[in-house]
């Protein structure tokens, strides 16, 4: 038997924070890729520390539904899952290349294939493109459009910016969009000045966040000038400084995100059969890739 455990942050304050995690888990259950699929959270139930006791399988693929490598993926999750053999060097990562480390959960004895975060997997680039398709309603979106990939950014963890820049660079190399730019909330270049970084009349803005919440629903729309008060709402697109801004909301709410979780587990050795192809077919993944 093999099980998938998805580890996400969750929130005591935002009721919808965990919704994408449950939705993606349901998508994976529907394609029968694993004998068991469990959600777990830092700030909600079921908690990281308890979830393995609800899993019957001896072999577990643990995938963090986080955007970047850092404090949660390198310290909190291994500690709470009691992966006592863990050390960050096992991933041999440059900040965006974490793959998998096979460990034993100290209290349950299960074999844990601890995967790198979903946010740094190459398939996340396809989810960002799919998000642009979803918000514009155009499966061929790209020509005449700029794309802004937005992250939080922080001077406390350089890997936070690396993940954003990594995907912006990968998408830029495809020459699909006229312009691609990584922008941030808390470091330069800042999302406040989004229109200064693009010549394109149309700009799709995709925040690389797992779930919608305070930053994606309040801060970013107000910072970009879509609205003076997020409570009054805004149009999609909204014209700002002569540019039409197509704001997508959090990338993690895109249904294709389930594919990234599956691909992380498959890269770690999970036998998922044709589940990846089925999820892409059902969520539009082939279109995002241009297959």
Automatic annotation (TrEMBL):
SUPFAM superfamilies: Chelatase. It comes from the Archaea. InterPro entries: CbiX-like (IPR002762), Sirohydro_Cobaltochel/CbiX (IPR050963). Keywords: Cobalamin biosynthesis, Cobalt, Lyase, Metal-binding. GO terms for molecular function: lyase activity; metal ion binding. GO terms for biological process: cobalamin biosynthetic process. NCBIfam families: PRK02395.1-1. This is Cobalamin (Vitamin B12) biosynthesis CbiX protein.
């Amino acid at each position: 038997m093999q099980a998938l455990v998805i580890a996400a942050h969750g929130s005591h304050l935002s009721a919808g924070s965990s919704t994408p995690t449950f939705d993606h888990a349901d998508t994976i259950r529907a394609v029968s890729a694993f004998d068991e699929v469990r959600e777990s959270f830092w700030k909600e139930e079921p908690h990281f520390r308890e979830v393995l006791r609800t899993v019957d399988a001896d072999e577990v693929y643990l995938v963090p539904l986080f955007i970047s490598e850092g404090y949660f993926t390198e310290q909190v999750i291994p500690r709470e899952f009691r992966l006592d053999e863990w050390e960050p060097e096992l991933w041999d990562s440059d900040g965006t290349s974490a793959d998998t480390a096979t460990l034993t959960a100290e209290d349950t004895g299960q074999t844990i294939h601890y995967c790198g975060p979903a946010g740094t997997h190459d398939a996340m680039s396809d989810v960002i493109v799919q998000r642009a398709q979803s918000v514009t309603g155009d499966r061929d979106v790209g020509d005449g459009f700029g794309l802004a990939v937005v992250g939080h950014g922080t001077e406390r963890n350089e890997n936070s910016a690396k993940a954003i820049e990594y995907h912006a660079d990968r998408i830029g190399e495809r020459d699909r969009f006229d312009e691609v730019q990584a922008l941030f909330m808390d470091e330069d270049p800042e999302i406040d000045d989004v229109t200064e970084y693009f010549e394109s009349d149309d700009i799709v803005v995709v925040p690389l966040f797992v779930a919608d919440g305070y930053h994606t629903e309040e801060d970013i729309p107000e910072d970009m000038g879509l609205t003076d008060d997020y409570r009054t709402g805004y149009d999609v697109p909204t014209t700002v400084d002569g540019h039409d801004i197509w704001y997508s909301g959090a990338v993690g709410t895109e249904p294709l995100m389930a594919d990234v979780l599956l691909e992380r587990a498959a890269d770690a050795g999970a036998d998922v059969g044709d589940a990846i192809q089925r999820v892409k077919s059902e969520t539009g993944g082939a279109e995002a890739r241009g297959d």
